[in-house]
């Protein structure tokens, strides 16, 4: 080192530590803690202050992985400041741990990057708020299970009692309590002397220490402690903290633990284990089948709600009864029905219609969605599911006010859901192709990456239970773990995975690179292959534009695996039609009106009934059109029974006309009207003859239509002008609706442009706030004091600065009369204005000379 070079002084505060960082490091801090950038701090001192607030520190601690959190917890019980060697000893113990030693630099680097730890390796400091959150106290034991130090536990103890403890422990007496506590602390930290002291302890006393060593460190004693407790109290191995309460001092616990702050350090994440491995071709085919079934289910759901779905509850959402009806219609359990309903809602395909009698219905976007190719329709559903914060698995549970959570209702948003879904799929993408994970290993990995909340500040303790979300989602079944299990089920249901393994189109949906696939091989026994590949690193979350490109890539991979839509059916003599695969849109729409679905599966069976044929005639089609349609789309001749059925229903269709009287019924054949009047089933309709061909009814037109159809007739509705009303199968649609916006978890992560601008602004503000004014006398001006110079001197100084390129202080009063100090580098002085680079605002600005109170040079430092 040259004589001019001096080692950099150790930072005295977090602000100074941040001031020593480069721009890349500051940018990394703002990305990892996005709450610090909104609004942009004025300077680094303000950034450091904001980074030390309780809310921000709690949020940062909650996003640490388990070992980084264990490192922070160890620092909270270490000396302040601590050395790297002391921290390593707390984590690795007296015997050392190579895995801990290898992982500690990265964990410490994470804490430094997030401004939770600052200082060099010889003076590591945990930010004060984090130390307060993680350090032990009688009300909140440390997550490590350690109690207070000897100095903290003896703070309120009498000097005489301290001297008695020192003497009983075999230490020489001292002249003051401070030196006595220091000597006792040194004894407890000395492994050799401490071992000798414990060798003298009765067996029962050692058992007491063993029960307290891993926490909680507090215990209860009576006014007359038992001999085993008295022996420990007399030597300070247990110290009283309150009447009837004793604590195991931190130094004693660390000796008994072998120097470890944690019972089980977890320096490395648990691996995700493969429960089974299948051929990739089988996985893709299975997933494609599930994807096709998902499209069919969503279409069936919204088709069932075509003429107006269930009513919206007053508090919002579906009633329990309507959810059960939907589950029966889809032939799925109620939780699965809730998933499909919520998925269609998240994709913007259904919403409430906003009418006075509010009901759910498909949106106009549903009609556009149906016209897309099948693979694109699936990609839209899968993308909406990935980003949705609404969590269908909560349906049927209760909120914080003990109200039942209903499908499509409020209270289902969980901001962690998109992140957990993406992370679960990313873990699957890290497995070899075709490998299905063991769910328990996925949960263990997620809990390591984000320990469940618990205790103070949201930080989890030693195997602690999480406090959970607003609905009490905590403990081993914490909300994130439940979402992870739901993700595995929903991804399989949606066709992103097949047989539990991530499919090729599912991998593309995440933006993960496609692995090199060998040629197809025959499947071995059990359709399982050994795992030989090294897991690939999981993909990072995608931006909106990247996600759109990934969805398009996934659709391209899925398209060849989906069955090609057919343009024909097979008509059979038993009044059924068999569709051997998915049908093209016009054929499927007409057949849905003309026939009823009898069964589903690899082939769909439709049945023709008088009611279904009448439904087609009501939609405006004639018998001749139906005959021509069936002949054009059937690979088999139209059976005579079906032709007779269509002709018979058509012959009777429209002979009766229903209008409003309340309602009337007219027919050119008075014998038919006489037959209706004589039928006992017509008694409830209130019919009476007005003319040989006209009957009046008390029932309304809709009720009269239904009653006559139940009697076996085929009436047609009539308009006020006497024309037949054509009731086409047009669906009820809501006004244009947008899909629900996901509820973000905290502030959004800023993009690179915003981060770069924020770093520049903070740097500029910091330069301005730390620069000092040099007065003509050579000393420094007081903080906030404006430079004061005459007009001539101001002009001359600014002109000289233009030639030399130096920066100056100026005092400036704006149009509102607000005064401020600015640091500018003048580049031009003309026309009564000075133009220069304003270091305070980090941009070029122009100031009127008459508003400048004066100029001053910057102090040299």
UniProtKB/TrEMBL annotation:
<keyword id="KW-0347">Helicase</keyword>
<feature type="region of interest" description="Disordered">
    <location>
        <begin position="134"/>
        <end position="154"/>
    </location>
</feature>
<feature type="domain" description="WYL">
    <location>
        <begin position="793"/>
        <end position="855"/>
    </location>
</feature>
<keyword id="KW-0547">Nucleotide-binding</keyword>
<feature type="region of interest" description="Disordered">
    <location>
        <begin position="512"/>
        <end position="548"/>
    </location>
</feature>
<feature type="compositionally biased region" description="Gly residues">
    <location>
        <begin position="454"/>
        <end position="474"/>
    </location>
</feature>
<feature type="compositionally biased region" description="Pro residues">
    <location>
        <begin position="737"/>
        <end position="750"/>
    </location>
</feature>
<dbReference type="Pfam" id="PF13625">
    <property type="entry name" value="Helicase_C_3"/>
</dbReference>
<dbReference type="InterPro" id="IPR026881">
    <property type="entry name" value="WYL_dom"/>
</dbReference>
<feature type="compositionally biased region" description="Basic and acidic residues">
    <location>
        <begin position="516"/>
        <end position="530"/>
    </location>
</feature>
<dbReference type="GO" id="GO:0004386">
    <property type="term" value="F:helicase activity"/>
</dbReference>
<feature type="domain" description="Helicase XPB/Ssl2 N-terminal">
    <location>
        <begin position="569"/>
        <end position="691"/>
    </location>
</feature>
<dbReference type="Pfam" id="PF13280">
    <property type="entry name" value="WYL"/>
</dbReference>
<feature type="region of interest" description="Disordered">
    <location>
        <begin position="449"/>
        <end position="479"/>
    </location>
</feature>
<keyword id="KW-0378">Hydrolase</keyword>
<feature type="region of interest" description="Disordered">
    <location>
        <begin position="731"/>
        <end position="750"/>
    </location>
</feature>
<dbReference type="InterPro" id="IPR032830">
    <property type="entry name" value="XPB/Ssl2_N"/>
</dbReference>
<protein>
    <submittedName>
        <fullName>Helicase-associated domain-containing protein</fullName>
    </submittedName>
</protein>
<keyword id="KW-0067">ATP-binding</keyword>
């Amino acid at each position: 080192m040259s004589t001019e070079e001096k080692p950099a002084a150790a930072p005295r505060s977090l602000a100074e530590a941040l001031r020593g960082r480069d721009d890349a490091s500051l940018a990394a801090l703002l990305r990892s803690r996005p709450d610090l950038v909104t609004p942009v701090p004025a300077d680094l001192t303000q950034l450091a202050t904001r980074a030390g607030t309780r809310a921000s520190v709690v949020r940062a601690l909650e996003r640490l992985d388990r070992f980084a959190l264990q490192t922070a917890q160890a620092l909270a019980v270490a000396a302040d400041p601590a050395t790297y060697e002391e921290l390593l000893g707390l984590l690795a113990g007296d015997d050392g741990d190579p895995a801990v030693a290898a992982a500690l630099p990265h964990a410490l680097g994470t804490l430094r990057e997030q401004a939770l730890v600052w200082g060099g390796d010889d003076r590591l400091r945990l930010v004060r708020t984090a130390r307060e959150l993680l350090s032990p106290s009688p009300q909140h034991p440390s997550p490590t299970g350690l109690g207070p130090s000897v100095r903290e536990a003896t703070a309120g103890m009498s000097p005489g009692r301290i001297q008695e403890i020192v003497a009983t422990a075999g230490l020489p007496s001292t002249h003051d309590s401070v030196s006595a506590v220091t000597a006792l602390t040194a004894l407890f930290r000395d492994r050799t002397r401490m071992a000798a002291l414990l060798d003298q302890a009765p067996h029962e006393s050692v058992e007491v220490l063993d029960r307290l060593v891993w926490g909680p460190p507090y215990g209860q004693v009576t006014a007359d402690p038992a001999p085993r407790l008295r022996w420990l109290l007399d030597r300070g191995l247990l110290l009283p903290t309150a009447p009837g309460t004793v604590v195991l001092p931190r130094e004693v616990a660390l000796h008994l633990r072998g120097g470890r702050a944690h019972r089980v350090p977890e320096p490395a994440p648990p691996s995700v284990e493969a429960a089974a491995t299948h051929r990739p071709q089988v996985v893709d085919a299975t997933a494609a089948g599930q994807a096709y079934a998902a499209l069919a289910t969503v279409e069936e759901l919204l088709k069932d709600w075509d003429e107006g779905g269930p009513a919206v509850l007053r508090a919002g959402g579906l009633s329990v009864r309507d959810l059960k009806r939907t589950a029966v219609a889809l032939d799925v359990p109620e939780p699965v029905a809730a998933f499909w309903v919520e998925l269609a809602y998240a994709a913007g395909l259904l919403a409430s219609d906003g009418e006075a009698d509010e009901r759910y219905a498909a949106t106009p976007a549903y009609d556009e969605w149906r016209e897309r190719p099948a693979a694109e329709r699936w990609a839209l559903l899968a993308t909406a599911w990935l980003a949705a914060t609404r969590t269908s698995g909560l349906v049927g549970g209760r909120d914080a006010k003990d109200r039942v959570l209903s499908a499509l209702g409020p209270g289902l948003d969980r901001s962690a859901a998109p992140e957990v879904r993406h992370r679960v799929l990313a873990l699957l993408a890290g497995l070899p192709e075709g490998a299905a994970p063991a769910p328990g290993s996925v949960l263990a990995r997620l809990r390591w990456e984000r320990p469940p909340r618990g205790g103070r500040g949201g930080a989890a303790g030693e195997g602690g239970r999480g406090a959970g979300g607003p609905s009490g989602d905590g403990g081993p079944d914490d909300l994130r773990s439940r979402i992870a299990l739901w993700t595995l089920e929903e991804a399989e249901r949606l066709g992103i995975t097949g047989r539990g393994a991530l499919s090729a189109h599912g991998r593309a949906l995440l933006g993960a690179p496609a692995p090199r696939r060998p040629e197809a091989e025959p499947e071995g026994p059990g359709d399982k292959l050994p795992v030989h590949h090294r897991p690939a690193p999981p993909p990072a979350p995608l931006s909106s534009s990247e996600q759109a490109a990934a969805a398009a890539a996934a659709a391209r991979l899925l398209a060849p695996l989906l069955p090609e839509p057919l343009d024909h059916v097979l008509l059979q003599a038993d009044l059924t039609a068999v569709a051997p695969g998915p049908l093209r849109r016009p054929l499927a729409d007409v057949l849905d009106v003309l026939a009823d679905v009898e069964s589903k599966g690899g082939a769909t069976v439709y049945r023709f009934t008088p009611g279904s044929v009448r439904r087609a005639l009501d939609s405006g089609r004639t018998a001749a059109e139906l005959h021509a349609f069936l002949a054009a789309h059937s690979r088999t001749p139209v059976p005579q029974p079906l032709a007779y059925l269509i002709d018979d229903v058509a012959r009777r269709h429209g002979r009766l006309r229903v209008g409003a009287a309340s309602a009337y019924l007219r027919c050119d054949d008075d014998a038919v009207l006489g037959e209706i009047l004589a039928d006992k089933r017509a008694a409830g309709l209130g019919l009476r003859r007005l003319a040989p061909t006209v009957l009046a009814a008390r029932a309304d037109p809709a009720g009269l239509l239904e009653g006559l159809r139940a009697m076996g007739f085929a009436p047609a509705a009539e308009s006020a002008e006497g024309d037949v009303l054509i009731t086409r199968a047009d669906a009820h649609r809501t006004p244009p609706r947008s899909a629900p916006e996901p509820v973000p978890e905290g502030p959004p992560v800023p993009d690179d442009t915003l981060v770069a601008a924020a770093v520049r602004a903070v740097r500029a503000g910091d330069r301005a706030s730390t620069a000092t004014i040099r007065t003509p006398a050579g000393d420094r001006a007081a903080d906030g004091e404006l430079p004061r110079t005459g007009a001539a001197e101001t002009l001359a100084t600014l002109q000289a600065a233009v030639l030399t390129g130096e920066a100056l202080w100026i005092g400036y009063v704006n149009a509102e009369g607000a005064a401020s100090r600015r640091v500018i580098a003048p580049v031009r002085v003309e026309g009564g204005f000075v133009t220069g680079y304003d270091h305070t605002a980090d941009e070029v600005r122009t100031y009127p000379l008459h508003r400048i109170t004066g100029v001053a040079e910057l102090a040299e430092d």
